[in-house]
Amino acid sequence: MLEKYDALTPEFADAQMGEDGHYLKGLCYMQMEHYQKAMDEFDTYINNLANTHEEDFVDVHTFVQKGRCLSQLGKFEEAILAYKKAIHYYENCTEAYYFMGLTQLEMNDRTAACNSLNAAFVLINKGFKSSDNYVEYFHEIYP
Predict the structure, then answer these.
(1) C-alpha torsion 25→26→30→34, nearest 10
(2) Cα separations in angstroms, 33 against 30, 41, 71
(3) Could you tell me which residues come within 8 angstroms of residue 141 by beta carbon, excluding any fewer than 6 positions away?
(4) CA-to-CA distance for 98 and 118, rounded, in angstroms?
(5) In order along the chain (143 residues), what is the average pLDDT of each group of 10 residues?
(6) Among 13, 49, 81, 125, which is least packed, fewest CB within 10 Å?
(7) What is the number of alpha carbons within 13 Å of residue 5 lying toward its C-beta?
């Protein structure tokens, strides 16, 4: 459905439900485990916004989701860079620390993983966590 809607206005990025259409398509592809397609959509969103504004206008969770896709594809170093970019733009991004820690475990870097997971734990206990009373987040993290 998002593809059909987007095809109606190919000259600009749509914003269904207040979210960029490419970001939403990326989330859909990610849930279907089409990780490369998801990354392509996330990159389109990132590049479009970076070209019209600046990269710091991009929702930081886009970098987190891109990192998760990279991790699923076994591109662990690139995934770490995506998580670090999210942290660069929002230092209290609990999800970036958490998923970076899981990726570092996959890389068998237990010290770094422990540090990242501890940072996520501290942040979540301080109340820094994505949540919405009206929307259920998939892969929501909890202490």
Answers:
(1) 80
(2) 5, 13, 12
(3) 94, 95, 98, 120, 124, 129
(4) 8
(5) 51 61 92 97 93 90 96 98 97 97 98 98 92 72 81
(6) 125
(7) 12
